[in-house]
From TrEMBL, chain A:
It comes from Streptomyces bungoensis. Residues 674-699 are annotated as: Disordered. It comes from the Bacteria. This is Uncharacterized protein.
UniProtKB/TrEMBL annotation, chain B:
InterPro entries: Peripla_BP_I (IPR028082). SUPFAM superfamilies: Periplasmic binding protein-like I. This is Leucine-binding protein domain-containing protein. It comes from the Bacteria.
Length: 699, 516
């Protein structure tokens, strides 16, 4: 049994049954039947979610859970083999869908417990017809290579065919002879294939299969003519090719239906065949999905369980699909088809993992390595439940503990993906998989931005001239398509990805030049007083705290308490990657000085400006550093600092009778939230008060 | 998967897949059935000995009707059994009827076995003659061996089997033999005749194993070759002229049908004797030694104590006890006195008895008895009716031919104990009855019809037996059958003395029993 997936019980639970056993009709990892939820028509399940949410892991687990028990195929549409035709093969006789069908059928053919191989005579004939369209100038060796792979789909693998000799080899020779002979190439090859199907075996099933293409439109009752039309449509491209591809998909499903029909197969096979399509947003995914959905909508039924995974929500392509959260389908899907083809799909959004799942996952990965008790919750706060983030951080922890002391160090520390592979910084490994590689550079820069305007300012300062405002918009759209949340006030909505990008920005240059330029650009972008928090936020990111302390100190008495707390949180949400001097050199060496300031150990050396309340100044300074530290998702919460935070807020609440209640509430809630690894939500959050741009108190 | 338990494997790789489930159920059912078939014979040990022969519960004896060539473990029977098998196998299916020779083949007594062997040889010779030397008369005769056990204790099983054979392809039409007149033999004959199976008694002589006693026929369909004890005693009396004052009676108490009728007949002869009859009590199986030897030693004292006119001892007992008594008399005190022991045909068993102290016979002791038959009877006696040397000569001829193939070999044959002659005559009578009962135009007689023939065996329809004429009265008993009186010789054998007749004289030429 493979590694157990955490937090995916809604899919894999056996008792009560999750979605997978109800769909496939088999208990995962067991050869044991289970009643299906939709016995007549079944939904085409599409798992949605952003990168790193574990879609591929779920599909992998499905493959693992059902391999050997029911025919199962997994294709990853992002693989290069679907990107373009192999060398020598003309594009007119190749398409991602045809290639995908071939790969799927090859995997489905494998024998399972209790039943032998499945043969695909219909799909085989169709694929041969399609391939034959590109043999105009091919040498016989290439034809043999191509046709043999396709013909293997019809190998039953039984001893009977073993006795009869390598059927595929013999037929291949016939087809090659027909294709390279003097007669018409295409019809010759098709005729040879069909004859082989009909004559190679005397079984009724093969007779039936050999005449299946009679029903192809305009075939006039001749299977051979049907196949030639199919080949022609395929070569024509465009919608004609789509039509031909739909017929090929139908051939695959018909072969599968045939494999399950009859008394003997019903007594041998449990459940339904399962087809898994990863990265279904790229070709051949959409073509396959649409072909199946359209056929099902038109009443060409099948009993194949499809589970696809696509990035983003697919609002355009699957407009009428039934949408469910993962937890909602745990016991029943509540799916019912409507008229539109896309309503045959059931979109299931994968949810982030819960803190408990995080705890279990880290425990599972780290094994015997002692883990700081706050690490799991802090990891969950940092990653927001992103399974990939949790796993890689846990791997990093397992490989680097106890050397590393904070999450930031775990992210920068190297992690080896495998024993014999070189170590890669963890944040780099994560970004490789969470962010589209072609936009990594741009996003690294723009991660610090808050909105379109600030992004454009950053782009102008740090990106090549070719990257203009239009490209910024395109990138924003791309992020939305990727399934990353859109959050006001954040150019990159996902906090985890944003933190990783900022870390990358910080570490991009040895002297942190990009980092400083970015924050200086942004702080210059907000010169006016009403945007002071933004300016202060970025100054803080650069390590300059004086203005922030002054602003908060002066505002404490004048500003509304609620707004003041919000400002405090927003300013203190600035990233912190230890202090640097003007030349970018580490002024104090690596280490976190915020705790020392927050605990008042540096107060003695501080000289409050003239004419200000020295006690308040120092208190605000300590408070700012405490919040800055505790809100930083990259460090583990410090109980002493939490205590100090509570104390400082209590003291402040005594100074402001008007805001007493709010401050006192914050003095209770914030330390607790920080210790538990939760974001320090203000008492006003959820009430809709305050500006939209600076509500967020955490990075 | 490999780590999973067998239970999971059975559940998931067999049970969950309907085809495999049904196949597995089929295989399991077949296995269980096979196991049952394999284990059942082991649990219930094989009690069969040969076709038709098996060991009953609680016994090691092979009893039943041997339809093949089974010799009941007796090597001396082997040759004749094989000869019978050869003759049986020669017969065409549908053209024969079966006659069973009911004798205690598993007897452990060498004497009894000798008699059995001789009767079987005689029966076989009669079968051979019936099938070969009778102008193709139908039906042919198949001979089988029926064993009720050494003491006849398993007679019921054997009788049941015989009864079944009357309706099967065996077409059993008569049971011959029966052997000694024991209680079990009586029960067997009663049951057989109750089921309308004709029975031809060979050496049964007991009065109560016969019809016509006190005017009743308790065994309808029973015919006998040997005279009743009463007739023997009458013949013996007519020969010895014993009187009350000269004879002492020694008898078996409680006795069996044979000894009781003999005792009654003797007692009637010496009515008013001054000596009280002396009883002895042998074991239930009278072929066993028991403790009677002591009793006989005491009785010999009494014998010597009698008055000197007493010179005859009438012995009503079985042969084992007779042998013990003779041995005891051999050591008697009054060696100077001459005694003659008179007894029934049981004494013929002693002619080849090795444990008999033959020197006793040299000490003024003569043992004379009524033999059922004797080879010298017709050579020495010149009676003109009641039997003939020619009839006996036919048997002699057969016997001579049986020393080698194709008739023989039939093992060592001896005529002097009369058993071979008796067995021969018994089967001859059975064959006579069977063939007389065949309806016109048919080949096979009805079962009960055979028994109805017995009263007609008289006059010209009599059977000219090797032991003498067999003329049956209406009760199936022989009328005025020749009774050879023989005497045991010290050399081991029997010396023919003369023929005695129950009626005091040979029957008339027509051989018709007078009205009672």
């Amino acid at each position: 049994m493979g590694r157990h997936l955490h937090g995916r019980g809604a899919l894999f639970d056996a008792d009560p049954a999750g979605l997978a056993p109800r769909l496939v009709g088999l208990r995962p990892h067991h050869h044991r039947g289970h009643p299906v939820e939709h016995p007549q028509e079944l939904p085409f399940v599409v798992l949605t979610g952003a990168r790193g949410l574990g879609k591929s892991a779920v599909l992998g687990e499905l493959l693992d859970a059902y391999r050997g028990h029911t025919p199962v195929a997994l294709i990853d549409c992002a693989e290069p083999q679907f990107a373009g035709p192999p060398a020598e093969r003309p594009a007119e006789s190749w398409s991602p869908v045809a290639q995908g069908l071939l790969v799927i059928a090859e995997q489905l053919a494998a024998p399972v417990t209790g039943a032998g191989r499945i043969t695909f005579p219909r799909l085989m004939s169709g694929l041969v017809a399609v391939a034959a369209g590109g043999w105009g100038d091919a040498d016989s060796e290439r034809i043999r290579r191509e046709v043999e792979r396709i013909l293997l789909l019809n190998e039953s693998g039984s001893w009977v065919s073993g006795l009869a000799g390598r059927w595929a080899g013999k037929v291949a020779a016939k087809v090659v002879a027909a294709a390279t002979g003097t007669g018409p190439l295409l019809s010759g090859a098709i005729e040879a294939t069909l004859e082989s199907v009909a004559e190679g075996f005397t079984s009724r099933r093969h007779q039936k299969a050999s005449v299946w293409y009679r029903t192809y439109p305009n075939a006039g009752g001749h299977a051979q003519r049907g196949l030639m039309l199919l080949s022609g449509h395929f070569r024509a491209g465009g919608t004609s090719r789509e039509h031909a591809e739909r017929y090929l998909v139908r051939a695959l499903l018909a072969d599968l239906t045939e494999a399950y029909a009859g008394v003997l197969p019903r007594m041998q096979r449990l459940g339904r065949p399962l087809v898994l399509i990863d990265n279904a947003q790229t070709a051949p995914g959409p073509g396959l999905v649409e072909a199946v959905l359209r056929d099902r909508a038109e009443g060409v039924t099948d009993q194949v369980a499809f589970v696809a995974a696509r990035r983003g929500e697919g609002r355009e392509s699957l407009r009428s699909a039934v949408r469910r959260e993962l937890a909602e389908v745990a016991r029943r899907s509540g799916w019912a088809p409507e008229a539109a083809p896309s309503s045959r799909a059931l979109l299931v959004a994968l949810a982030p993992l819960t803190p408990d799942d995080t705890l279990h996952l880290i425990g599972a990965v780290c094994g015997d390595t002692p883990v700081p008790p706050q690490l799991p919750h802090a990891t969950h706060r940092l990653t927001g439940g992103n399974p990939l983030g949790i796993v890689l951080l846990a791997e990093s922890a397992a490989q680097n503990l106890p050397g590393a002391s904070s999450l930031g160090e775990l992210l920068t520390a190297g992690v080896r993906p495998a024993e014999d592979r070189p170590a890669v910084p963890t944040y780099q490994a994560l970004l490789d998989r969470l962010v589209p590689a072609e936009h990594l550079e741009e996003l690294t820069v723009l991660a610090a931005a808050h909105d379109h305007d600030s992004a454009c300012a950053l782009a102008a300062a740090l990106l090549p001239d070719t990257f203009g405002p239009a490209d910024v918009r395109a990138l924003q759209t791309r992020l939305a398509e990727e399934g990353l949340p859109t959050v006001p006030g954040r150019f990159v909505g996902d906090p985890f990805v944003r933190t990783l990008l900022l870390l990358r920005l910080h570490l991009r240059d040895p002297d942190h030049a990009s980092w400083r330029t970015a924050h200086e650009t942004l702080s210059a972008h907000y010169p006016d007083p009403e945007h002071a928090p933004y300016r202060l936020h970025h100054e803080l990111a650069l390590g300059r705290t004086e203005s922030a302390v002054a602003h908060l100190r002066d505002g404490f008495l004048s500003l509304d308490t609620r707004a003041w707390l919000r400002t405090l949180r927003f300013v203190a949400s600035a990233p912190y990657f230890h202090a640097h001097d003007a030349e970018g050199r580490d002024s104090t060496g690596p280490g976190d000085r915020r705790a020392a300031v927050a605990l008042g150990r540096t107060d003695a050396g501080q000289e409050p400006p003239e004419g200000v309340d020295a006690v308040l100044h120092l208190r605000i300074r300590r408070l700012l550093h405490a919040v800055w530290l505790l809100a930083d998702p990259l460090v583990l919460p410090d109980a002493k600092v939490c205590d100090r935070l509570r104390f400082e807020l209590e003291q402040l609440s005594n100074l402001r009778p008007a805001g007493n209640a709010l401050l006192w509430r914050a003095s209770r809630d914030w330390p607790a939230a920080a210790l538990a690894g939760r974001p320090m939500d203000g008492p006003d959050d959820g009430q809709g008060a305050g500006g939209a741009d600076d509500r967020s108190g955490e990075a | 998967m490999a780590r999973r338990g067998v239970g999971t494997w059975v559940r998931e790789s067999v049970w969950e897949i309907p085809l495999r489930r049904y196949l597995a159920l089929l295989v399991a059912a077949a296995l269980v059935a096979g196991l049952v078939f394999a284990v059942r014979p082991l649990l219930r040990d094989d009690r069969s000995c040969a076709p038709g022969v098996s060991r009953p519960e609680g016994s090691d004896e092979c009893v039943g009707v041997a339809t093949g060539s089974y010799d009941f473990g007796q090597t001396r029977l082997r040759d004749v059994v094989r000869a019978i098998r050869r003759e049986n196998d020669r017969l065409k299916p549908g053209g024969y009827v079966t006659v069973a020779l009911l004798l205690p083949y598993t007897s452990t007594s060498a004497t009894s076995l000798n008699d059995i062997l001789h009767q079987l040889q005689g029966a076989y010779l009669a079968q051979y003659r019936a099938n070969h030397d009778s102008n193709g008369e139908a039906p042919a005769i198949r001979l089988v061996l029926a064993n009720p056990g050494a003491t006849g204790g398993h007679w019921r099983q054997t009788v049941d089997q015989l009864t079944r054979m009357t309706t099967s392809a065996d077409r059993l039409r008569a049971v011959a033999g029966v052997g000694q007149s024991t209680d079990n033999a009586k029960k067997a004959v009663r049951e057989l005749t109750r089921r309308h199976v004709p029975v031809v008694g060979s050496s049964i002589t007991a009065d109560d194993l016969a019809n016509g006693q006190h005017g009743q026929d308790p065994y309808p369909g029973l015919a006998r070759v040997s005279p009743t004890n009463t007739d023997e005693a009458r013949a013996l009396a007519s020969f010895a002229r014993v009187s009350a004052g000269k004879a002492l009676l020694v008898y078996d108490k409680p006795g069996d049908p044979y000894t009781r009728t003999l005792q009654r007949s003797f007692a009637a002869l010496i009515k008013g004797s001054p000596y009280e009859p002396q009883p002895f009590t042998p074991p239930a199986d009278r072929s066993q030694e028991g403790t009677t030897a002591n009793t006989f030693r005491q009785i010999t004292h009494l014998v010597c104590d009698t008055s000197r006119e007493t010179d005859t001892i009438l012995f009503a007992g079985r042969h084992t006890q007779l042998r013990q008594f003779i041995n005891a008399l051999g050591g008697r005190g009054c060696q100077d006195r001459r005694f003659t022991v008179l007894t029934g045909d049981e004494a013929s068993y002693l002619t080849h008895e090795s444990e008999l102290d033959r020197t006793a016979l040299r000490h003024r002791l003569a043992v004379r008895y009524t033999s059922l038959a004797h080879p010298d009877a017709w050579a020495r006696d010149t009676a003109r009716t009641g039997g003939s040397a020619a009839d006996f000569g036919a048997l002699n001829e057969l016997l001579a031919g049986a020393r080698r193939a194709p008739v023989g070999p039939i093992g060592s044959a001896a005529l002097d104990d009369g058993q071979l002659i008796t067995g021969y005559d018994t089967l001859q009578l059975a064959v006579h009855g069977i063939r007389e009962a065949v309806p016109d135009g048919r080949k096979i007689p009805g079962l009960a019809d055979v028994g109805l023939q017995w009263p007609q065996v008289k006059g010209s329809l009599r059977v000219d037996g090797a032991s003498g004429w067999i003329c049956l009265d209406v009760h199936g008993n022989p009328y005025d059958k020749a009774v050879p009186i023989v005497e045991l010789t010290p050399e081991g054998g029997a010396r023919f003395v003369r023929i005695a007749w129950p009626e005091g004289k040979p029957p008339a030429k027509d051989c018709l029993p007078p009205s009672p």
